[in-house]
Each structure stands twice: as C-alpha cells, then as structure tokens.
Amino acid sequence: MEGKVILSSSDGQVFEVDMKVAMISQTLSNMLKDTEDTGSETAPIKLANVSSRIFNLIIEYGKYHVEAQKSDTSEPTADLKKRVRELVADDKDTLFQLMIAANFLHIQSLLDLSYQIVAEDIAACKDQQMIRQKYNIENDYSPEEEEEVLKLHNIFE
Amino acid sequence: MARKRSRLTLDDLPDCILPLILSKIPFKQAVHCSLVSKGWKFCWTFAKNLKFPEDFFSSSRSPTEIQNIIDLIFERHSGPLEVFELNNVRFCCSSDKISDWIHRAALKGVQEIKIVEKVSEIYEVPAAIFLCQNLRSLALKNFLLTNLPDGFGGLADLTTLDLCNVDLNDKIVELMLQLCPGLESFTALRTLRRITFLNGIFWRDVKILKEFPDLEHMCVHKGQCSDTDFFRLDDEAILPLENLKWVHLNITYFHHPVHLLSCLFGIAPALKTLLISRKKGFNGVRAQEFINLAWNLQRPSTETKVFLSRCTANEKICVDCDLVNFI
C-alpha cells in the first residue's frame, strides 16, 4: 500500500501519515482495508482516545519501526527499545499513555517493548517500598497478610 | 499549552497488561514484587524465566529445603515458561527430582534450558531434556551424554546447542544432527572438548574432527575401523588440533602402525598421551619393534608418551615402553 492516510487525534489535530507507518497498527490496517474494499472517499479517521501528544510519539515510533525493518541491524529490538526510552524521556505517565494507545491501536511490537521497559524499571528497584513509591501504589496488605507473604518471600531470599 | 496531567498509575492500565509486564521480570525480583500490594501478590507466578543461580544451591539450606522450594515454585507457577536454568544442582538434588522439574518445564513449553555442573564427567544428561518439544536452545556443561532416550524423535526447533565439556560419542552427534534439522550444523558444537567415537565407521567421522578446534581428548572405541582410516587425516588436510592432548585408540586392526603414529603426531602437535589398546595385533610387527619404530619417529615433544595396553573386559594394563606384560 502506498500513499498517505489522514488521521485525527482526540483533541482534533489532523495528521497526514505515511501508509507504511500507519500499517504497523493492526487496528488501522483493518480499518484501511475496509475502506479500500468499499472504495469510499477517505475522511480523516478519528482516534477518539489518543491525544495529539501521544500520537506524535506513535508516529515517531512507527518511522523507527519501518526503518528498522528495512535495515539489518544486528540488534533491532535493543535499538528500538532505546528509541522508545528516548521518546518517553523517562516519564512514566507518558509511557503508560503510550501503552494504552498501543493497546488500542494494536501495535504489538511497541506494547512488548514498553512492557519490557516497565519490567526493567521495576526489576531495578531495590525493594517493595521503592516500587510502591515510584509507581504510586498503596500497600493494601494488612500486617498479618504482609507477614504471610513475607514468609513466602523469605523462602526464596 | 497547559497540559492536563492526570497522573496515570499501573492500576489505570487495562487489566490484561499488568500480568504481561510482571511476567517479564526476572524470577528473583518478581518474588520481591509480590510484597508490593495485593494485586501483585502472585506476580512471581507469571515469571517466564526460572533461573536458579549457583548461590541458591550452595546456600545454608538443606537439600530437602531446596527441593521443596523448587517443587513449590512449580506447583504455584502459572502460565508458560521460557527459560529454565540450574547451576550446580546435582550434588544436592537427585536425578529423578531434576527430571521431574524438567518435565514440568516441558509441559509449560520451555524454550531454553541451561544446566551447568561444576564437577565434570559424573552425571548423565537428564533424558527429560530431549522430550522438551519447544526447546530452541540447550546449554550443558560438564556432563556425560552416552545415550539418547529410546524413540527420541528429535527437537525440531532446536537452533542452539552449546555443549561445554560434555563427553559424547559420534553416534549421538550424528543422531542429533539428523533429528534436529534446525541446528546450525556443527558450529553449535565447536566448544566440544572430549569426543568418543563409539563403534563408528571412523573414516566418515574424520571430517568431523576439523569442526572441533578445541578438542582435547579423543577416544576411538571398539571401532570397526582399522588404522588405515586414520590416513585420511592427511588427505582431508585437517588443520592441526592444537589442543588435542589425549588420544585413546581401541580399534580392531593395526595394518600400518607406524604410518598411523606419524599421522597422529602430525595433526596433534600438543599430544601428551597416546594410549593404544591392542585387539588383534600389529600386522606381524611385534610390540617391541613397534615401540622402537615409534621412538624413531619425530615425536611432537619429549613429553609425548605412548602407552600400549592389553585390554580384556575388566583389566587394563598400561605399559610405558616396558613391554614385559604386553607380548
């Protein structure tokens, strides 16, 4: 598929995106196939839950992805992961929004990479307090329950 | 533009996502995570990688404790497994136990197994490994591999086979290559240090030798071959095996024993010990003459020793140039 596709974000901004880039999204690729079949004039496709800020990042990622597929770098995944880290600039909020958008748009490679990034960040925390703090999670264990889990934990330590 | 910032947390993500993230955390840290909150309690059970490092087994726990912990992990673990790794486990866990874990890992579709032992040449490779149909990568260190399980149908997906200091024979090499079509030929076996050619037709295997530059120890056992097969070593233009130090030939006929020695000395410049077990004699050359002839040859070094032994089923007598017992 060649050409451009017109998309609009939740805040009404209109994007003209390379077809190749748009096709990395399973959701968009299905939609585009449908419109192609009916031959209807393509009105901008509205992405109701993707903001323009996040959509810009997705397009950037899409370009990297298409590029990575063309070139034969030895570590395409590691390279892409680095790019995604750069895109979100260590901002968890952005990363989560990106993840939700990737989930909605069905971009499996981006989802996998962002899972890995979060998993790496969690694994790098030195204990449960640090994880709670970093990810703003409330400890909802009662002292007794915590004691029980701690026992299990100690087996493995 | 003022950005609306409603901070998202992990809880705001769609429900299916958290387990997927947690499954990517290494097992040890995942156990840590179960302390974070109720929602995370069982996160370690999704861990895709179960790696038990050396210090896990060498800690102060008793063997029973260690076995119980691993049993418990397999009992509670849910979902698929990708990597299973054991380090120096054998001294505290029975082979049945280890096989049982490998079976469980196989049921979870394990793709990568690594088992490292510290002490070499004592333990047989657990046969259960060869039943892991999803296996892509297998790494073993310090094992014996004398048999493949009956009815072994191959591992279709196996691409990487890393055998370090694994004692195995030509039949197994051949079978593995036949039955594991994905294997990138012998390159996967390049680290091989010891090989035993067992009842093989050696001349076919001679070519194999050049695939094992690290070979230190070669044993040709009860081969239906005669020494003439070795002369192909010259024809095949095999590069010197710089690390080959120990050769044991237990073959049926020695037609040209001296030529044999010069061929072997030629490809093994570092040869320290050559052990020859006589089966049916040296084509009329008496052992004493044989040794004399051998001594006149250019030996790789003065350290090179040639032993002759007379092998019966239970007895092996090594004689270093002193042939009283030999004739």
Report on the architecture of this protein.
The complex is a heterodimer of chains A (157) and B (327). Chain A has 157 residues and is mainly alpha-helical. Chain A has 8 helices and 3 strands, in the order ββααβαααααα. The longest helix of chain A is centred in the middle third of the chain and has 19 residues. The radius of gyration of chain A is 20 Å and the shape is elongated. Chain B is an alpha/beta fold and 327 residues long. Chain B folds into 2 domains: 144 residues, Alpha-Beta Horseshoe (Leucine-rich repeat, LRR (right-handed beta-alpha superhelix)); 135 residues, Leucine-rich repeat, LRR (right-handed beta-alpha superhelix) (Alpha-Beta Horseshoe), CATH 3.80.10.10. Chain B is built from 10 helices and 11 strands. The N and C termini of chain B lie far apart (100 Å). Chains A and B meet through helix 5, helix 6, helix 7 and helix 8 of A and helix 1 and helix 2 of B.
In short:
The complex is a heterodimer of chains A (157) and B (327). With 157 residues, chain A is mainly α.
Blueprint of the fold:
The complex is a heterodimer of chains A (about 160) and B (about 325).
Chain A: E1 4-8, E2 14-18, H1 19-22, H2 26-38, E3 45-46, H3 52-70, H4 76-88, H5 92-105, H6 108-124, H7 128-135, H8 143-156
Parallel strand pairs in A: 1-3
Antiparallel strand pairs in A: 1-2
Helix pairs in contact in A: 3-4, 3-5, 4-6, 5-6
Chain B: H1 17-22, H2 27-33, E1 49-52, H3 54-57, H4 63-76, E2 83-87, H5 95-107, E3 112-116, E4 137-145, E5 160-169, H6 170-179, E6 194-198, H7 202-209, E7 217-226, H8 232-235, E8 246-253, H9 257-267, E9 273-278, H10 287-296, E10 305-311, E11 316-319
Parallel strand pairs in B: 1-2, 2-3, 3-4, 4-5, 5-6, 6-7, 7-8, 8-9, 9-10
Antiparallel strand pairs in B: 10-11
Helix pairs in contact in B: 4-5
